[in-house]
Structure to design on (234 residues):
């Protein structure tokens, strides 16, 4: 038999009005199922969901890692001007696919020295504002030894990123190929990109439409990739 993941499942359904990243049991089980697998060096990132105080946990010779879920493709519906750019029906559809597994990631979840986690930094850094394409560009630069708006926080969790050996290893592990170039040398960024100088928030109906369409295309592609990645289980 094969492991079962419903790529169309909206994790808000079992979160009961609370944050799906913390309260959807289905989401946690999907994360554990998908990311408990061999790393590029052959070691297995075996995750458990029973460690007190940890969403998902791994401890081995590789290190001690406490991971948390992050919904990584925002619709920006909380910003009033966004509602001028898109109908409520379109926004609802965007939010629905934005809570499927293709729009979910895990990152280290414990603060280091009382400073922001990656999840917190993604949302609070003005050059990124939760955009996953921009986050992934920062991660690409981390592996290349470059600077980015998230450079400091990524360095704090360098032991986590070292698990994947390279940007390609990270992308392939988390099935993110549809957001990068075939040679892994660039990230597909929605709209104009001028080295993080522009606001990441779409500022017109055209910009929002491009962002929404690119985001949905990525989530749909990653959902298909996740579904096809499932391997037989005993």
């Amino acid at each position: 038999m094969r492991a079962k993941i419903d790529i169309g499942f909206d994790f808000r359904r079992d979160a009961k009005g609370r944050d799906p990243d913390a309260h959807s049991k289905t989401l946690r089980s999907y994360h554990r199922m998908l990311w408990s697998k061999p790393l590029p060096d052959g070691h297995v990132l075996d995750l458990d969901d029973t460690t007190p105080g940890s969403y998902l946990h791994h401890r081995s010779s590789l290190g001690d890692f406490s991971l948390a879920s992050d919904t990584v493709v925002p619709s920006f519906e909380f910003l009033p001007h966004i509602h001028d750019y898109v109908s409520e029906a379109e926004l609802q559809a965007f939010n629905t696919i934005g809570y499927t597994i293709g729009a979910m990631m895990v990152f280290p979840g414990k603060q280091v020295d009382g400073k922001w986690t990656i999840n917190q930094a993604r949302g609070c850094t003005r050059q990124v504002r939760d955009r996953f394409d921009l986050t992934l560009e920062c991660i690409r630069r981390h592996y290349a030894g470059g600077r980015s708006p998230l450079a400091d926080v990524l360095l704090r969790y360098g032991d986590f990123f070292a698990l994947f050996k390279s940007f390609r290893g990270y992308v392939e592990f988390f099935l993110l190929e549809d957001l990068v170039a075939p040679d892994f040398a660039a990230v597909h960024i929605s709209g104009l990109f001028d080295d993080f100088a522009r606001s990441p928030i779409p500022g017109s109906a055209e910009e929002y439409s491009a962002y929404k369409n690119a985001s949905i295309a990525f989530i749909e592609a990653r959902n298909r990739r996740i579904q096809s990645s499932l391997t037989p289980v005993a």
Remarks:
- Residues 11-229 form one domain.
